[in-house]
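FORM 7B - TANDEM STRUCTURE REPORT

SECTION 1: FIRST PROTEIN
SEQUENCE AND C-ALPHA CELLS:
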Amino acid sequence: MRHGKKFNHLSRQKGHRAAMLANMACSLIEHKRINTTVAKAKALKQFVEPLVTKSKEDTTHNRRIVFAYLRNKYAVTELFREVAAKVADRPGGYTRIIKMGNRLGDNADMAMIELVDFNTLYTGGKKEEKKVTTRRSRAKKSDAAPVKEAPAAETSENTEVTE
C-alpha cells in the first residue's frame, strides 16, 4: 500500500538517501548544474529549494539549519554569498529540470537540473545592473545654455581663406 508515502524513497534507506541528496545539493550549488536521473532531480528539487529560500536571509540560525542538511561549509558559504544574491528578488522556483533523453547503459531517463539565475542562455548573457539613484535632481536639457557653433565655423573658414 501507498499510505503516507509523500516523497520518492529512491530505493534507498533514510541515511543513504539523506547523504545522497546532500552531496547532490552541494554539487548543484558548486557547479550550478548537474546531470542525473529524472527521479533524483525531482527529489533534489524538493530538497534544495527550501534551503535556497532560507539562504535569502543571512542569519546564524539559518546558516546552522542549512548546514544541518548540507554538511559542507563551503557549499553553505557559496549558497549564502553568491546564490542568495542572485535569487534575492525571485519568489520561488530556483531550479529548472531539463530532460535529456535516456542513458545508454540502462536506458534510465536522464535530466539536467540547474539553478535558474545562473543560466546565461536564458538571461541573455547580460549581468543585472542595479539602477543607481541619487537624491539630487538633474538639470533639464531645456534649462542648459545652448552651445554656439557659429564661432567654430568662422575659424574653419578663416583658415581656408588664408591658404
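SECTION 2: SECOND PROTEIN
SEQUENCE AND C-ALPHA CELLS:
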Amino acid sequence: MRPALAAPRDQWQDATMNDEIEWKVSDGLVPYPEALAWMEARAAAIAEGSARECIWLLEHPPLYSAGTSADVAELLDDRFPVFKAGRGGRYTYHGPGQRIGYLMIDLNKRGRDVRCFVHAVEGWVIATLSKLGIEARREAGRIGIWTNEPEKNGRPGAEAKIGAIGIRVRRWVSFHGFSVNISPDLSHFGGIIPCGLPDFPVTSVASMDNPATMSAFDSALYEGLAGFLAELK
C-alpha cells in the first residue's frame, strides 16, 4: 500500500514529457521516512509497469542520512535525526534550503548502465548550475558536484562541494538521487564528515553571493531534462 503523503504538485505543464515522466515539486518540508517509503513504493510500481517514471523535487527537515558505506566515526554530533538511507555513499545532511531530487527512472528502457546513469545525473546538475552562473564540475575519485568559492582578499577560493549524488537501483529502477545546496544553513553539516571527505568544505549557491532561488534552479533543471534523458539512450 502506498504510504500516506501530502501529494506533490505539478510544477510545469508539458504534455509530451508528462506522458513519459511525472515531474513533481512538493511544498513544505517532507519527512524523510515518508519520502523514502513513497519512493520505494513508486519504484516498485514502475518496475511492475503500473506507474510512470517520476522526478520528485522536495526539501526535508534537518537530518543526517547514512549511505551503505557510512562509517560511524564520521558522525561527529547527532544533533539531528539519523536515518539509514539504503543508497550508495556515506553520511550527508539534508535540510531546508537544499534542493533534493529523487529520480525514479526505469533503466530497463534507458540502458542498464548504472555508471552511465550516475554520470548523466552529475552532468545534468552541473549544466543546471552553469545556467545560474556557477561553474561546477566533477572531480576524479570524488563523486558529487564541486566548485570553487569566490576569491577573498585576492586569494583563490577554496574547492568545495555544492552537491551530492546517491543512487540505488532495484530491479533496474533507480531511486534516491541528488541534493544541491541552494541556501541551507551550512553549519548543520558540522555534525558529520560530509561524504567522508574531511579536507573539503561544503558550499551553497547563496554563500557564493549568487542570488539564484530554488525556483530558478528548478526551472533550469527542467530545461535540461530532455538532454539528461538523451544521455541514457
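SECTION 3: OBSERVATIONS ON SECOND PROTEIN
Residues 112 and 172 are 7 Å apart (CA to CA).
The radius of gyration is 17 Å.

SECTION 4: SIGNATURE
Preparer initials: ____
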